[in-house]
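Continued from yesterday's entry.
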Amino acid sequence: MKLLTFAHRGEAQAFLSEFSFKPVDFFFDGLLISNDYFLLITGEGPHSASEKTISVLAHYSTQITHVFNLGVAGSLVPQLKLHDLVWIRTSYAHHAEKCEFKSFSSKNPKAINDCMTAFSRVIDLEEKTKLSHFANIVDRELWAVASAAHLFKKSFNALKIISDELTNEKLDICQFVKDEAPLFSKKLLDEFILSEKDLTPKKALKAKEGNDSILLSDPLFYFTVSQSRKLHSTLEGLALKGFSEAALNNETEVSAIKVMDKLPKERARLLLLHLSEKLNPISVKIRKSLEAAIAPLEAAKIQVSYDSTFEEDWLNINLKIQSSRDLEKVKNALKIFSYEDYKKIFDGNFDV
């Protein structure tokens, strides 16, 4: 069964009617169940959303397979307008004037927008502009819900509807959201039902992922099917931030990758890395910290790999020993390398 989470009952009202939910006798109010879904009203803010989602997942861990967060969100870019429906790719969090290190990504191929969860309401245009460097929309709960799903190893999806535009001049946005709740909820329900039935035509998906991309059709690169999809979603995310593919293709960094003495497949990997880091600037800092941490291992010719999404703190090593000297190098490298410091980077400590 899927767990559907909403901050407020108003956002969930169309779902409550459509699926005939009934209250569950639980530790707190707000948990309901139907034939196919659990539905949880988390309350506003990341603390309440985290506590309640974790409680439900802990109690019904064997029954819940997937977590869905739905509700309203504010736009951080001019392209996203009132009533636009937005599938979320990655969730970030902003707290006490800084971004939380950990982020959580969905596996939804339709998702091209990122969401910033704020620990306090974001109304000021200057604050919205600052957050727009990391995400296209802002909410109050998604990161907490996604974090809980990650903790229990459940996949998650998120669907938001824009209730507050970037330059919104409404004096009472809370009252506006309450007044518009029936419409917001109905639009969310309609889109959710479409996603559940998977009505996206395969032909349309194929066309969307076709060779109409400048970079995808460039013979200097070779993209696998999964890389092609990632390129497409990354380019769409960059487009929302004002970067056209034509402009990206002419960047100095992209031109430099094209002339590298490497195989087309490796050039494609480096291009995707560059574009992903352009879309998510904090990943550059993370990658450099990780490279510094594993440098002693690589100096001993130990092949090292880690989670490219930076969500898991595992480390994979592969080595070849052909002499006692090689063995001594490996021993010394492992003595120097600190796995605890490596793990701290995944908790946001870049100074280790």
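--- second protein ---
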Amino acid sequence: MAKTALVTGILGQDGPYLAKLLIEKGYKVYGLMRRYSQPHMGNLKFLGIENQIDFIEGDLTDESSLIQLVKTIRPTEVYNLAAQSFVGSSWDQAKLTTEVNALGVLYLLNSIKFFSPITKFYQASTSEMFGLSNDKGYQDENTNFHPRSPYGIAKVYAYWMTVNFRESYGLFTTNGILFNHESPLRGIQFVTRKITDGVARIKLGLAENISLGNLEAKRDWGFAGDYVEAMYLMMQAKEPDDYVVGTGICHSVMEFVELAFKHVGINDWKKYVVIDPRFKRPAEVPHLQAKSDKMMKKLGWRPKVAFDELVKMMVDADLKRLNK
């Protein structure tokens, strides 16, 4: 029988890339969606897989709906990618962020524990859990957590609950601590996509500037299409474990901006960028840089798309979209 996978967050950035990978490997893929009158299928259509997924309704905040779908499908693997994922909004929507990002994981784990204990579970953890912990200039699996946002705090709860279900009940549960990963499918509110969309608009004469916050923040940016391969490898391992996933190379927001403008032939980028205090976080995370030795040595994963290739890919996709 073909393997089956339940993917939450199927309409986001990572869900479509993961679904495409699993379909190519022969999986039957179920995509969890909340009840929408008109669900936005743009990201799935971008990859040409909108008709290759079985969509099922459910909600991470509704434990009964999760129990019902796990009982019905009994999937081989569950990839929990759903979240209130915009860090900036988590201060204003702390309760919602906690209900989805923390309690939703508990509900999913309970559903698997009671109704399909052979199902493997992947939790999308995040580098935001590390926050200020940067004593060695990088973060790995041994770095302490010091989250600086309600988003990061909720994700720490989900991380430890995933570990606890593995240690307490013998379930196959794994955390992928993914550092920043981007693509043309990234939501427009995220800084990377805000930059590439803004640069494309300025190049085409559709906008005069981009409003941004902290240009000094440094992140380890990779391509989402590479990172879903890491998720898959974690779920195929003989034993469940937790892994940091990143490129190991750090760049500032300013570098991202400069490269994006340079790609469209604009060298004097500063006159097009407006610094707006509204886009600065109440508590900033200055430096996130992965040390992914464990992932690379144990599971053989390597990132394929370099930083400059990623930026150019995203700018080109936005130029193409806006030209239409």
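Residues 4-181+222-245 form a domain with the Rossmann fold fold (CATH 3.40.50.720). The longest helix spans residues 94-115. Will compare against the first tomorrow.
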